[in-house]
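Re: the request from the purification team.
They wanted to know what the chain is likely to look like in 3D before they choose a buffer screen. I agreed to run a prediction and write the result into the notebook, where they can find it.
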Amino acid sequence: MAAPKKGRRTPAGQGKPWRSLTLILLAMVGLTVGMFASGQTTPRLGIDLAGGTSITLEAKNQPGRPDAINPTNMQTAVGIIERRVNGLGVSEAEVQTQGDRHIIANIPRGTNEKQAREQVGTTAELGFRPVLSMAQTTKQQPQQPEPESSAGETGGEKQPEKDTPPQGRAVTDGLKTTADKTPSPQATDGDEGAQSEAPTAPPQQQMPQPPGVPKKLAGELEKLDCTTKKARADASSAAAAAQPDEPVVACDQKEKVKYALGPIAVKGKNVKDAQASLDQQSGQGWIVNMSFDDKGSKQFASVTGDLSKNQPPQNQFAITLDGEVASAPSVNGPIGGGNAMISGSFTQQSAEDLANILSFGALPLTFEESDVTTVTAALGSDQLSAGLIAGAIGLALVVIYLIVYYRGLSVIALLSLLVSGVLTYTIMTLLGPAIGFALNLPAVCGAIVAIGITADSFIVYFERVRDEIREGRTLRPAVERGWPRARRTILVSDFVSFLSAAVLFVVTVGKVQGFAFTLGLTTLLDVVVVFFFTKPLMTLFSRTRFFASGHPWSGLDPRRLGAKPPLRRGRRPSVVSTDPKEA
């Protein structure tokens, strides 16, 4: 046998197709085993297929505030309710406004209905609690205190600002918490506060117990688990259910710090207003300005005065919403006048989020359940059955077309569709307990549409191979030469489909997102199947006599494809002789 020419390389994938096939088969086995190991062998169903609870809330004005029901306040309420529902570990829940004064929350079956009604229908509780102790919940390196730079502490010259409200500095991303305060028209002389650093607890350890912290509360803080969604939801529920005059332990919304907190010093209803703005004068970036009513102003001045006498972290107050800490600024002196400013490492979004939380505590709105109904899955089941029948009919037509037109090649296409189906089913099943993915009716439609996208990829490759045979090449070179051209076409087509699914997922809400998610998932799986299963399997089949010889039922018969010159025995083009003797 002649040695191969130096410098020539075997076409990619031609010599070792078993590697790719083994890899994808191992992936299928692993996903299947994981599915059975998790105990979830069927995809989780959405409310339209599995049923659930639909809660309708009606907004009510408080006396003296007739204009409180407006789109801004309603949307803020929707955001709070969505966060509550997510805290219950519920997915595929829908919370949206209906009309100008109603909010509807649809919660799938499998959720504790009583707990859901309590969480959804209860008015949000916002409060300001003094921090007694704190600890970190994640394994992080302890942060080193930064050099103090305030003029008040270094003995430098003060730099007063006119007509600016007193301020406490805070960050809501779980990083350092610092504070400073500048004089306001209502503040007394010598009110200039100094900047200080609130020390951070060591990783997975509670800080040394500060004086005044009850031993029982310190033990509760040590045992408090804030590392999982369920644990945080349980902790938030317990803290929200506590009486205002009781100390509590609570988790931070950013999942990095846990706190032992004193009784509520200022209630959220005493907040008049809160707004996020960009402070361009003093260069502090995004800030949150809040104001209190008369009662809240006196209480806030009193509590900040008391906190300023303490050492960190007992010079901080926690802003809690539904039992979770949204922010924990520190202060250095009494903040009077009814105005305060929170500054720190805010982005526009985080500043607006905190402002919304503070504003919600001041919303003169309460919600009453106007209707609670149990949604049955009967209608959804009928629609699902109709959809599955339509999908089965479409799949049958695709199979018939592949068999009639591609004959033997249809075996490769059908096996590829089977692999794609197994991967899609197992992944969607595992995504249920993993991220809460629920299969709704639009998602089923997305999976049915994906059949056509996947079959289209096979057809592109088959036609490229057949084009090479029409040009007179034998099957094995045709398989390898047709792949690069088919690969480009498949990638471009799938990229467009995936981009469409991604855009649809981002700009839509509710059930349409289920369609977009499924379409995007199946598009990615199409690329995986074509590259790691269809192409290697085609390489193996090209080595069999049935396909290499161009059998009439192989789908690669040169005569049926109109190859010029025709192939002989699947090896090389025949030579037409012009010699009369040979003829």
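For the purification team: The first helix runs from residue 17 to 38.
Please add any questions underneath this entry.
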